[in-house]
Amino acid sequence: MLDIKRQYVMSEDNTPVGVIIDISTFERIESIIEDYGLSHYIEEADDEEPLGRAEAREYYKKMKESV
User: Fold this and answer.
1) Do 2 and 24 meet the contact criterion of CB atoms below 8 Å apart?
2) Predicted local confidence at residue 14, as pLDDT
3) 15-31 burial by CB neighbour count: b if 16+ within 10 A, else e?
4) For 17-66, what is each residue's pLDDT tens digit?
5) φ/ψ (deg, to 5) at 6
6) What pLDDT, on the 0 to 100 scale, is given for residue 2?
7) How distant, in Å, are the alpha carbons of 25, 44, 50, 53, 63 from that of 34?
8) Residues near 22 by beta carbon (within 8 Å), at least 6 away in sequence
9) What pLDDT does residue 64 have?
């Protein structure tokens, strides 16, 4: 398990309203979330048929236009 050293940000009435973590912990959490999302995307894509060359070009073209 990831050891997360954190500092709590408290409101004037002593209610926790936020958390401060160091940048290396944040980057590690971000990497874990990205890896998790990518693994699910790969699992979903495994069930799909591969695109042919023309289909892949058309799909890529649409992706570029939408950005």
Assistant:
1) no
2) 97
3) eeeeeeeeeeeeeeeee
4) 999 999 999 999 999 999 999 988 888 777 778 888 999 899 889 988 88
5) -135, 155
6) 75
7) 14, 15, 24, 29, 20
8) 5
9) 87
**pTM score:** 0.56
For residue 22, what is the DSSP state? -
Cβ proximity of 20 and 7 under 8 Å: yes
For the chain, domain boundaries: 6-66
Which residues 6+ apart lie within 8 Å of 26 measured at CB? none
* Unique residue bearing structure tokens 């695109």: 51
Residue 7 pairs in a beta bridge with: 20
